[in-house]
Design a protein that fits this description.
alpha/beta, Rossmann fold, 2 domains, about 40% helix, globular, binds nicotinamide-adenine-dinucleotide
Length: about 300
């Protein structure tokens, strides 16, 4: 039996890129899938229903089940309708993949308020909106005695975990999503839910058209069978995390891409200075320089990952 047989999934932003491959992989593994996408340009403007319809058609062509939904994840009431779409069409909901995304890169001193708000609204608030309505449903279902084994898979980014110049809006949203995933898991595991988060690496319009720093590496073409940045590399992990079998995995963040899965760890203390009493400015000045700062490991840069990938 396929690993997701009988399960119903929502993938937001499933019309293109990573979300498209995730939706297809979920369907290939037996899930019925809601293909949610507004069909926006990478900056969030515009709306086109064609890409999501094509993904649904592709799934139906191999015998899978899919329905399209064009709600914006940024809209709280619209996000509820995405959940209702799954319930009305397929009668149940087990898996939510929050993947929809846009970019509006600017240095902090040039970033318009609108560019900050738009990115936060799609990523951080969108992830909240869809998760919030899904969790209300999962909690009620659990109380009613249903053993749904729900899974939420959110989408962060190295830009949020490590930081990236030009992406104060996006990085803040993605860091927030990683932490929100941990909090959702803490709150919802008692209702049978497992919530985890991925930080993907893939060639899409976000990494090629919208981000010059990654375009040089990710935009290149690869000879032979192994294309390290094909968005198909992301999808199997998402399908696995959506399965009943993955129920022991809680509140984790995995970087994924290029045939590799990395276990990521967030903020944790790595060194300290302390004293039984008040640390004065003079003591801090001396002891931070001499004892604390030398013990801090160098900061990992966002492009360092490219040196780890087997090309
Ligand atoms: N490509 C990468 O290497 C990479 C790296 C880190 C994180 N990510 C994240 O992965 C996710 C997918 O990105 P992608 O690279 O496939 O980009 P993409 O532009 O190919 O796909 C994003 C999709 O989200 C949809 N979308 C945008 N706003 C929406 C809204 N309000 N409601 C519903 N749908 C909406 C778009 O129409 C688009 O189809 C994003 O969250 C992105 O931030 C991607």
């Amino acid at each position: 039996m396929a690993i997701l047989e009988g399960r119903v999934a929502i993938v937001t932003g499933a019309g293109r890129g990573i979300g498209k491959e995730e939706a297809i992989e979920l369907a290939r593994n037996g899930a019925k899938v809601v293909i949610n996408d507004v069909g926006a340009h990478f900056d969030g403007t515009g709306a086109d229903h064609t890409p999501s319809q094509q993904v649904a058609d592709e799934i139906k062509a191999f015998g899978g089940e899919a329905v399209v939904n064009y709600e914006s994840v940024s809209d709280f009431a619209g996000a509820k309708r995405i959940i209702e779409c799954a319930l009305d069409t397929f009668g149940e909901l087990h898996i939510v993949v929050n993947n929809a995304g846009i970019l509006r890169d600017r240095m902090i001193f040039n970033m318009a308020e609108e560019d900050f708000d738009a990115v936060i609204n799609v990523h951080l608030k969108g992830t909240f909106n869809v998760s919030r309505h899904a969790c209300a449903y999962f909690r009620e279902a659990n109380k009613a005695g249903k053993d749904l084994q729900p899974r939420i898979i959110n989408t962060a980014s190295d830009a949020g975990l490590l930081g990236n110049p030009g992406q104060a809006n996006y990085g803040a949203a993605k860091a927030g999503i990683a932490t929100m995933s941990i909090v959702i898991d803490m709150e919802m595991s008692r209702y049978g839910v497992a919530c985890n988060c991925i930080a993907p690496l893939a060639r899409t319009r976000l990494t090629v058209d919208a981000t010059p720093s990654t375009a040089a590496i990710m935009g290149q073409t690869f000879e032979g069978d192994f294309d390290p940045f094909h968005p198909k590399h992301i999808a199997p992990l998402v399908a696995y995390l959506g399965s009943v079998e993955a129920g022991s995995i809680h509140g984790q963040v995995f970087r994924v891409g290029a045939g590799t899965v990395w276990g990521m760890q967030g903020w944790h203390s790595v060194a300290k200075i302390s004293k039984k009493g008040f640390l004065t400015v003079e003591e801090l000045s001396k002891r931070m320089q001499e004892e604390l700062l030398p013990k801090l490991p160098p900061k990992e840069e966002i492009t360092a990952v490219f040196t780890e990938i087997q090309f």
